Amino acid sequence: MSERRTTGLSGLDAQLGGGLPPGTVHLLYGEPMNAFELFAYHFAAGGAAKGQGSRYLTTERTPEDVREGIRRVGGDPSKAEVVAMPHNGKWLIPDLKPGFRYILDDFTGYATAVGFDEALKRMVVLREQARKAEVELLVTLTSGLLDKSVETRMRLWADGVLELGFDRQGFGLYPFLKVTKMRGIPESSRFILFKETEAGLFMESTRRVF
Prior knowledge:
Layout: H1 10-15, E1 25-30, H2 35-49, E2 53-58, H3 63-72, E3 80-84, E4 100-105, H4 107-114, H5 116-133, E5 137-142, H6 148-157, E6 160-169, E7 172-182, E8 190-197, E9 200-203
Parallel strand pairs: 1-5, 1-6, 2-3, 2-4, 4-5
Antiparallel strand pairs: 6-7, 7-8, 8-9
């Protein structure tokens, strides 16, 4: 089995046979919920635990909030470079370099700032950089805020699509993460229920991590 890079969540890593293929870009997509930011914090913390730095680019949160979030899920916030991006469009995502993993939180704010067509073109460039440098890029996108055609193009752009939602059973709502696509992992479709805890997200898996 080829090398895998941790998602920061052991249950999800187990479902994916050890984690993410190196040099892949991922879209965290779905209904609005706290799990978006918690997943991103786990992603940054997991990379740091394996010797990767993280660069967290955000249009939504303050650097202090991001560092506190990483600390909450058991990570080392000193390993994260947090950049709060302005909403005036006068910024560029830096080139992706080996030894780091990258988080763009969120695509809606980014695309609104720079323009949808320009944002989508830049995403294609970043995907090629990620593959060449063998780094991982996570981009968050809340469903229903952009035109459906933009959401569809982002889902096609990504190597992996991690979809957040609620499974409605009777009067209960059960949050889930569904892996609908993952380049380099055959039969990648997975449906995983999770819960929020004081230490972040907990995803249970019966699969072993090899």
